[in-house]
Write a structure and sequence with these properties.
The protein is α/β, with parallel strands linked by helices and 322 residues long. The chain has helices spanning 2-20, 60-72, 89-101, 115-123, 143-153, 167-183, 199-211, 263-275, 283-295; strands at residues 34-36, 44-49, 81-85, 104-110, 127-131, 157-158, 190-194, 216-222, 257-261, 304-309. The longest helix is centred in the N-terminal third of the chain and has 19 residues, at 2-20. The chain binds pyridoxal-5'-phosphate (PLP).
Length: 322
C-alpha cells in the first residue's frame, strides 16, 4: 500500500513538473511582480502589476480557473463553445485561452467598452456581440442577459458566468492572495482592489484575513454603482469597476471598507499615474490609485499597502484620458 502511495505521489509530482516545464502560455498566467509606488508617505505602497499577465489583465486568473474546472467536471468538452458576458478583460482572457485550447468563443460586451478591447477580442478569433449599456444586469438587453440567451441556444456551450460563479473569487484565493502574502513576506497591512464582479477583492481578501485578521481589506467601487447607491445606479464611464448587482462573489465579511470614486476622480488620476509615477494603467487602477492616494494620511510608518493594477492604459488610449 505504501509502495502504491509513493508511486502515486511520484506521478503527481512528475505531472506538476511537466505542466510547469511545458512552457505553455497558460503557465505564464499569475506570479506577477509587485512594484513600489513613490507616493508621499511614511508607509510602503506597492502595486501588483496584473496587467503583466499574458492576456493583459487580472482576469486571466479566474478565466483559466473556471475553464479548467469546467473541463474537469465535463461541462466543457472538445469542440465546445465558451460564451461569456464581460466588461472586456474576462472576455479577452477567455478568447486567448480558447485560442490555445481550441474552443470557439462568443463574448457579449456593453457598448461603452473601448475600441481596443473589441479589436483585441476579435484578434484572438472571438465573436463579439455588442449590447446596449443598461443600468440593471437583469434588463433583457444587457450583455449579461444576452450571454445567457446565446448560451441557451448554442449546443455544446459553456458559460463561466463570472458574475455569479464563486470559482471566480476562489481563483484569487488560490493564486493572487498567496502571491501577495509571499511578496510582502507577510508584512502587508492594507489591501486595496477595484470591485466589479468582486472576485478579486473577496478572494484575495479572504486569503489575507485568514493569514492575519488585522489586515485592512478595502474595496474600491464607483460612486454611482448599484452597490454604492443602494440599488439606484447611474451610468459611468470607468470600465472593470463598479458593483452593478447582488452577487455571491462579493464576500462583505472580509471587507472592512468601501471607497467610492467618481469618473472625474478615477479618470483624472490616470494622467498623474502615467506622468508623475510612470504607471500607464487602466481605468480601474486609476480609481484604486485615487482611493489609495486619499488614504495616505491614515497610513503610518511600518505599514505596507498593496493595490491591484488590473490592466494597462494601452487598452484605453483611444478614449484620450491620458
Ligand atoms: C481591469 C480590471 N480591473 C478590475 C476588475 C475587477 O475585478 P473583479 O471582477 O474581480 O471585481 C476588472 C474586472 O473586469 C477589470 O477588468
Amino acid at each position: 500500500m505504501l509502495k502504491n502511495l509513493t508511486l502515486s505521489l511520484k506521478t503527481d509530482i512528475l505531472k506538476f513538473i511537466m505542466r510547469k516545464s511545458s512552457h505553455s502560455l497558460l503557465d505564464a498566467i499569475g506570479n506577477t511582480p509587485i512594484a513600489k509606488v513613490s507616493f508621499k508617505t511614511k508607509a510602503k505602497v506597492f502595486a501588483k502589476l496584473e496587467y503583466l499577465n499574458p492576456g493583459g489583465s487580472v482576469k486571466d486568473r479566474p478565466a483559466l480557473f473556471m475553464i479548467e474546472k469546467a473541463e474537469k467536471n465535463g461541462l466543457l468538452k472538445s469542440g465546445g463553445t465558451i460564451v461569456e458576458a464581460s466588461s472586456g478583460n474576462q472576455g479577452i482572457a477567455i478568447a486567448m485561452i480558447g485560442a490555445i485550447k481550441g474552443y470557439k468563443v462568443i463574448i457579449t460586451v456593453s457598448e461603452k467598452i473601448s475600441e481596443e478591447k473589441i479589436k483585441t477580442l476579435k484578434a484572438y478569433g472571438a465573436k463579439v456581440v455588442i449590447c446596449p449599456a443598461t443600468n440593471f444586469i437583469e434588463d433583457s438587453r444587457s450583455y449579461h442577459s444576452q450571454a445567457i440567451a446565446i448560451h441557451k441556444r448554442t449546443p455544446n456551450s459553456f458559460m463561466p458566468n463570472q458574475y455569479f460563479n464563486v470559482l471566480n473569487p476562489k481563483a484569487h484565493y488560490t493564486t493572487t492572495g498567496p502571491e501577495i502574502w509571499r511578496q510582502t513576506k507577510g508584512k502587508i497591512t492594507h489591501y486595496f482592489a477595484a470591485a466589479g464582479t468582486s472576485g478579486t477583492i473577496s478572494g484575495i481578501g479572504k486569503f489575507l484575513k485568514k493569514k492575519n485578521p488585522k489586515i485592512k481589506v478595502i474595496a474600491v467601487d464607483v460612486n454611482t454603482s448599484f452597490h454604492a447607491t443602494d440599488g439606484h445606479p447611474k451610468s459611468y464611464k470607468m470600465e472593470g469597476i463598479g458593483i452593478d448587482f447582488k452577487t455571491p462573489c462579493l464576500d462583505e465579511s472580509v471587507i472592512d471598507e468601501f471607497i467610492s470614486v467618481s469618473d472625474k476622480q478615477g479618470l483624472g488620476m490616470l494622467k498623474i499615474m502615467a506622468k508623475k509615477y510612470g504607471f500607464l494603467v487602466g481605468t480601474s487602477a486609476g480609481a484604486v490609485s485615487y482611493a489609495v492616494q486619499n488614504y495616505l494620511p491614515k497610513l503610518k510608518k511600518g505599514d505596507v499597502a498593496v493595490m491591484i493594477f488590473g490592466d494597462s492604459g494601452r487598452a484605453y488610449l483611444s478614449k484620450n484620458y491620458y
